[in-house]
Amino acid sequence: RLPGASLTVSTPIGAYSSDRLINLGTHRWAFKPEIGFSQIFGRWIVDTYAGVWLFTTNDNYFNGRVREQAPITSLQFHVHYALTRRLILSGNANFYDGGQTTVNGQTNFDLQRNSRVGATLVRSLSKGRTLRFALSTGAVTTIGGDFSSLSFSFQKAWGAGL
């Protein structure tokens, strides 16, 4: 079993004006500590991650109001299978819960309970180059867009040993 941990930090940068309802910035900090585990079983790898987004208060929200947001918990699961040494197929699922906001103490109807499922096919080329094909769709969507996505990408990694 291979454990890991990360911390994502979102800083309050971007254009922000409290007299506008829609802004590029959020005027708050956000932090996401996350832990994960990977287990290898021959040609199979199983990954799981658990994290939580934590938000500071925006005390200068639209027209001087105060906006707060509850934490959002996240769980991710990935199962990878090596079809060949250079071709890997993955199944993926995630779930997000929480994030309800309040403005000046009034609770909004925006509790998130969303999940997505998908699959990814990765073909390793040479010297840190890969081709990636992925598709995903909403399994459960309570807030936000229920959409499907399809992507194709070429990736290049630089560094020692690649």
Shape: elongated
Count the E strands. Answer: 11
Based on helices, strands and strand pairing, what is the structural class? mainly beta
Q: What composes the largest sheet?
A: 8 strands, antiparallel
Radius of gyration: 19 Å
Q: How would you sum up this structure, described in words?
A:
- This protein is an all-beta fold and 162 residues long.
- The strands form two sheets. An eight-stranded antiparallel β-sheet has the order 1-2-3-5-6-9-10-11, with no helix packed on it. A three-stranded antiparallel β-sheet has the order 4-7-8, with no helix packed on it.
- The protein is built from no helices and eleven strands.
- The chain has strands at 2-10, 30-41, 44-55, 67-69, 72-84, 87-98, 101-103, 106-107, 112-124, 129-140, 148-156.
- The mean pLDDT is 91.
Keywords:
162 residues, mainly beta, three-stranded antiparallel beta sheet, eight-stranded antiparallel beta sheet
Could you give a short description of this structure?
The protein is mainly β and 162 residues long. It has strands at residues 2-10, 30-41, 44-55, 67-69, 72-84, 87-98, 101-103, 106-107, 112-124, 129-140, 148-156.
